[in-house]
Design a protein that fits this description.
Layout lengths: L1 E4 L62 E2 L2 E2 L14 H17 L14 E5 L5 H9 L4 E6 L12 E5 L12 E7 L8 H10 L1 E10 L18
Parallel strand pairs: 4-5, 4-7, 5-6, 7-8
Antiparallel strand pairs: 1-8, 2-3
Length: 230
């Protein structure tokens, strides 16, 4: 787990040109289209104001037409780009994982300093529980959560809103954030350098990008798990 502050004197971070970056799907060429003839969008829920971005999917019937495989439900937007399901069993698991993070962090939602931020971004918000709890604790802070699935509850604090979006595509937020929060995405991202770059570029100078996740490598406190063991 790490919270990294952006130095106000540092330029924007660019992805390494020698790295072979791969996006899961290009929504420049294939924007999400509603099944109905008229696409209805709540512009109050968009960070782009009147200029509604086609990079943020509207909650249409096509977005919520979830595919079912082996009796598990999966996301429809960018179908197949995320391996885990989005059904009730998975949502319960994510909420349980959130509680484990709170216990590990002494009930803290963030490790970075709280310098009276005005805007917070939660990438891969899942059930939205982290954003909702932060919104309850800080009603004066605007909080935006993004995810491939619109599985968040409809009844949320007025300062919290959710958008269906793919964090591996170019970010289109017009205003930067004081804090960018990324948690529990270790097995979900194809291009981590690109994600980290976009997170820092979306952070205000002096703000923080915080990443919380688990370690794929097994360890033992007493040293009995050595490198020669499978």
């Amino acid at each position: 787990m790490a919270a990294q502050q952006r130095n106000p004197n540092e330029p924007a971070i660019e992805a390494d040109p020698e790295v072979n970056y791969q996006a899961s799907c290009s929504h420049f060429e294939e924007p999400v289209v509603a099944d109905t003839e008229q696409l209805t969008t709540d512009e109050s829920d968009s960070t782009l104001g009147d200029d509604v971005s086609r990079y943020t999917a509207s909650l249409t019937s096509s977005i919520q037409r979830y595919p079912i495989e082996n009796n598990r439900r999966y996301h429809a937007y960018k179908e197949g780009s995320y391996v885990m399901p989005n059904d009730e069993a998975e949502l319960d698991r994510l909420d349980l994982t959130h509680q484990k993070f709170r216990i590990l962090l002494d009930q803290k939602l963030l490790l970075c300093p709280w310098n009276n931020p005005s805007r917070v971004l939660d990438i891969g918000t899942g059930t939205g529980i982290w954003a909702i709890e932060l919104g309850d604790e800080h009603p004066d802070v605007e909080i935006i959560g993004t995810d491939l699935s619109p599985t968040q509850p409809g009844w949320v604090p007025p300062n919290v809103k959710f958008e269906v979006d793919d964090c591996e595509e170019p970010w289109t937020f017009r205003e930067p954030f004081d804090i960018v929060h990324v948690r529990y995405l270790a097995a979900s991202i194809k291009d981590w350098p690109k994600l980290v770059s976009q997170a820092f570029n979306a952070t205000k100078p002096g703000g923080y990008a915080e990443f919380q996740d688990y370690d794929f490598e097994y360890h033992s406190d007493d040293g009995t798990l050595t490198d020669d063991r499978a």
